Amino acid sequence: MHNITTTMLANGPHLTAHEALSGVFGSISLASWIFLLVPQLIENYKQGSAEGISLAFLVVWFIGDITNLIGAIWAGLVPTVIALAIYFCFADLILISQCIYYNVRNARRARKASTRTEDSADQPLLGRRDSSNVGLPGSHRRRSSALSRRRRASSLPSLKAQEDVNNEWIKNSLSIAGVAVVGAAGWAIAWKTGVWIPSVEDDASGKTPIGAEILGYVSAVCYLGARIPQIIKNQRERSCEGLSLLFFILSLMGNATYGAGILFHSTEREYFFTNLPWLIGSLGTIVEDVTIFIQFRTFGNGEQTSAVDAS
Hints:
This protein is mostly helical. It has helices spanning 17-35, 38-47, 55-75, 79-121, 139-155, 157-192, 210-237, 245-265, 269-274, 276-299, 303-310. The chain has a domain at 20-53 and 79-115 and 162-199 and 238-310. The protein starts with 16 loop residues before the first helix and ends with a helix. The chain crosses the membrane at residues 20-42, 54-75, 81-104, 243-264.
């Protein structure tokens, strides 16, 4: 999934259309991976929670990136590729750490609220009049405001939900277009400055070590399996609340453009099988991303569902 093998060592005399498309798609894929985790980090921050995303999904994904990094070092890939693999592992750790922080913090708050509720249950009957105020600071106000929002939503649920959906799609479309422009512009600059030039086919002496290939397949299996816990979680809870749709859109775009970059570079048998583990890891996850899109469409993001239920 993140196995972006950027070739920068060659001296081709001219640039063909296939080489240009391969470079552009590879650069867009790279831009997608760089910005991939930002939407989910922002979503978790806005929600003050990470309950929507499966921690198992992130951990298996992180294992895939670790094996990808080790494989890149073992295969002796260019420093740029190794640096990117390190960046991906670092970004994974940031998101995992954020999720653990919110899960632990919210669990502690829930235990405190439960303890206060139990204490109030032991009070005399006359002392229970204020029991509605027991809980987290501002929780009663949030419950009241939530009820009022549901009442207001019941009057115009479809209008408000449709407006939110339209705004979300506009924001996501602009974000996707921006990432694509950044990726294409980055490739154009790299080509013009000589940082990126078409690669030539390596001879047999440059064959990838068998250990690195095995790690490539391990990372591909991890990438394929990582989304399964998230899909199961969404189906079990019948909700995608807390998930960033843009996160999965960027993932799909990164996988699709990466696979296209490889295939546009060459369709020769030896080259295809050399890159097969990365193709499996990238293109195979597209099916799982589409499954999550269907879940978004079916279950909504929580807010839309509550508005519909209120009606």
